C-alpha cells in the first residue's frame, strides 16, 4: 500500500503578488497587530475596572475584546516571523492548529455578534424585563454556548480538511493555512468536500446574520415608537456601534468564502483586513460612541499616567 502521509510541513508563500515588499508589510502589519492588542486590552481594563460597566452588554463586549486579541494572533505572529526574513515553513500540526483556531475564534465571534444583537433586542424592546430575561445565569449560558458551538464547527471543518491525504506539493499559496488553499494541495478528489465545506461555512454565518437582521428589524420598529427625540437618539446610538462592527465582520466573510470565482490576491487582502483591521477598529467603534466607556477609559489612561488629571 502506498503511503500518502508524506507531508510533514508546509511552506507559506505569503500574500500573492507582494514580492520584495516584505519590509513594508512587516512594519504595517506589526503596527496593526500592536494597536489591536493595545486597543482591546484597554477596553478590557475599562470594563473590568468600572462597576458601572458590569452589565450584560459590556460582559459580551468584554468577551469580544478577548477574542479580538486571540483572533489575529492565530496568523499574525507567523506572518510577521517570515516577513522579517525567517523561515516560511510551518509543521503539519501547526497548520492544523492554525486552521482550527482561526475557525473556532471566527465562528465564536459570529455567534457572539448574534447574542449581542439579542441582548440589544431585549434591552430596547423589553426594557422593564431586561434584567430578568438577560440574567447573569443566561449571560453565562450564552457566552459558553458561543464557544461550544464555535468549537464544534471548527472541529468539523478541520477534520473535513485534514482527513485528506497530503503527499505533495507542500507550498501553501497564502499567508496562513485556510480551507480553500489546503484543499488544493490534497492528493484526492475534493469536489464533494468543497461543496460540504461551502455549505457549512456559508450556512452558519447566513443563519446568524438572519437572526441579527430579525433582531434589528424589531429594534428599529421599537425605536420608531419612542416619542422623544432624545430617547430615539440614545437607542440608535447604542445600536449603531454594534451594527458597524457586524458589517465589518460579515462583509469579508461573504467576499472570501461565498464568491463564485476566488481571487487569491483579493482573498488575501480582504482576509488581512478581517484578521487585523477589524479587531483593531472594534475598540474605537465601541468606545467613540459610548460615553460610559470613554469615561472609564480616561480613568484607566490617567491611572497609567497617559492622561493629565483634568481630562
From TrEMBL:
SMART domains: 7TM_GPCR_Srsx (SM01381). Residues 39-286 form the G-protein coupled receptors family 1 profile domain. Keywords: Cell membrane, G-protein coupled receptor, Membrane, Olfaction, Receptor, Sensory transduction, Transducer, Transmembrane, Transmembrane helix. Gene3D superfamilies: Rhodopsin 7-helix transmembrane proteins (1.20.1070.10). Pfam families: 7tm_4. SUPFAM superfamilies: Family A G protein-coupled receptor-like. One of its GO terms (molecular function) is olfactory receptor activity. The chain crosses the membrane at residues 24-48, 100-118, 138-156, 195-214, 235-258. It is a multi-pass membrane protein. The keyword Ligase does not apply. GO terms for cellular component: plasma membrane. It is found in: Cell membrane. InterPro entries: GPCR_Rhodpsn, GPCR_Rhodpsn_7TM, Olfact_rcpt. This is Olfactory receptor 149-like.
Amino acid at each position: 500500500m502506498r503511503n500518502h502521509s508524506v507531508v510533514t510541513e508546509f511552506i507559506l508563500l505569503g500574500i500573492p503578488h507582494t514580492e520584495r515588499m516584505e519590509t513594508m508589510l512587516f512594519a504595517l502589519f506589526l503596527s496593526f497587530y500592536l494597536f489591536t492588542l493595545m486597543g482591546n486590552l484597554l477596553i478590557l481594563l475599562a470594563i473590568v475596572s468600572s462597576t458601572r460597566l458590569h452589565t450584560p452588554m459590556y460582559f459580551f463586549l468584554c468577551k469580544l475584546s478577548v477574542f479580538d486579541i486571540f483572533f489575529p494572533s492565530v496568523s499574525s505572529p507567523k506572518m510577521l516571523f517570515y516577513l522579517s526574513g525567517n523561515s516560511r515553513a510551518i509543521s503539519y500540526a501547526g497548520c492544523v492548529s492554525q486552521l482550527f483556531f482561526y475557525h473556532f475564534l471566527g465562528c465564536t465571534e459570529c455567534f457572539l455578534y448574534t447574542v449581542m444583537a439579542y441582548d440589544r433586542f431585549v434591552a430596547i424592546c423589553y426594557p422593564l424585563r431586561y434584567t430578568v430575561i438577560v440574567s447573569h445565569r443566561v449571560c453565562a449560558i450564552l457566552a459558553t454556548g458561543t464557544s461550544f458551538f464555535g468549537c464544534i464547527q471548527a472541529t468539523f471543518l478541520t477534520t473535513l480538511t485534514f482527513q485528506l491525504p497530503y503527499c505533495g506539493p507542500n507550498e501553501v499559496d497564502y499567508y496562513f493555512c485556510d480551507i480553500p488553499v489546503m484543499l488544493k494541495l490534497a492528493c484526492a478528489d475534493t469536489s464533494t468536500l468543497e461543496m460540504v465545506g461551502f455549505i457549512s461555512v456559508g450556512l452558519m454565518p447566513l443563519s446568524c446574520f438572519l437572526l441579527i437582521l430579525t433582531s434589528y428589524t424589531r429594534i428599529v420598529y421599537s425605536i420608531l415608537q419612542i416619542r422623544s427625540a432624545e430617547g430615539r437618539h440614545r437607542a440608535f446610538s447604542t445600536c449603531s456601534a454594534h451594527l458597524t462592527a457586524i458589517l465589518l465582520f460579515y462583509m469579508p466573510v461573504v467576499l472570501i468564502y461565498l464568491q463564485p470565482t476566488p481571487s487569491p490576491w483579493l482573498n488575501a487582502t480582504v482576509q488581512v483586513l478581517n484578521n487585523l483591521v477589524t479587531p483593531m477598529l472594534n475598540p474605537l467603534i465601541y468606545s467613540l460612541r459610548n460615553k460610559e466607556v470613554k469615561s472609564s477609559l480616561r480613568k484607566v489612561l490617567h491611572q497609567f499616567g497617559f492622561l493629565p488629571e483634568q481630562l
